[in-house]
Amino acid sequence: MAAVVLNEIGKEYPGGVAAVKALSLDITDGEFVVLVGPSGCGKTTTLRMIAGLEDVTSGTISIGGRVVNEVHPRDRDIAMVFQNYALYPHMSVRKNMSFALKMRKIPKAEIERRVNDAAKTLGLSELMERKPRQLSGGQRQRVAVGRAIVREPKAFLFDEPLSNLDAKLRVTTRAELKSLHQRLKTTTVYVTHDQEEAMTLGDRIVVMSGGEIQQAGPPLDVYRRPANRFVASFIGTPPMNFISGKLTDNGGTLAFTEDAATNPTTIPLSGELAATLRPHLGRPVVMGLRPQGLSENPAAAFLELTVNVVEPLGDTVDLTCSTDSGITLVARIPARRPIKPGNRIRFGLDFEHLHFFEPGDLGKSLLLNQASR
Prior knowledge:
By secondary structure, this protein is α+β, with helices and mostly antiparallel strands. The chain has helices at residues 43-51, 93-103, 108-122, 137-149, 167-184, 195-201, 219-224, 229-234, 271-277; strands spanning 4-13, 17-27, 32-36, 58-63, 66-67, 78-81, 155-159, 187-192, 204-209, 212-217, 241-250, 253-258, 266-268, 284-289, 294-295, 302-312, 316-322, 328-334, 344-349, 354-357.
């Protein structure tokens, strides 16, 4: 195992296209870190630079205390698992898992030990003589992971390994990967565009956009205290609702007033939230509200909304609603009673799910220093 340190690394392609910009990240020994973000954000390029499959334009990469910028991929002592499995179709599971060790001239007895141990760990012992075409998608992915495990590397690199699996299999394989890391404690860097996958797997998640890190931290910290509007919109299901407006003085009480020509929504703010936001009185802001923060319970602050679309999810239901001014909001509430399009519902607001940001797609949080959020 080993720490992986990225120090101001950058990747620029011909034509001045910057895929990664001065990115710094310290991944501790044994940590499971997930790089997450939309397509084109630079997460896979970052992973490929760690692996040595992409040259670094600037900065340095260290693995286990050794700078590896000029080190060949095979000599970096890492193992990579790809999205497409990359198994040899003519080889059995056993031969797929042992091939890299044979190329390294590892003694036969040691190869046998490593392969058998990995097969037992991954539940592959009964499949060792099958060819990849005789395996399900989930089994193929486990073989790909097993091939990485037998190398006993300093670090594992995963490039969207679950994206080819169906929804149910993704959930079970995700749990297997997390359990595997808890047993092996090998430093792991994992890339995905799926924020739910990132939240459930990572000791720490790194949210990227435009080749830069927008926020890094434990999954629940990032969810509860998003650093900016992009992070708030990307992390969480359904995505956070946003309403543009400004902070106003409503008879001595701080309030948020929607930016609308007719029927603007005004929400009174109180307590610690109001005290934190008062220095921004009169300024344009964007209010963020998690769908889970809208409830049918009475509250001092509320929104009266018209239901447009009802999406039952079992124990919960997602309601796409609109304000009187035409703003669309999504609420996720318990499925306690039938609700139909056209119903008018008064939703109470949970201040714990309210966030305020500066205007703009990357507008900074105005509450980031509020310890309770």
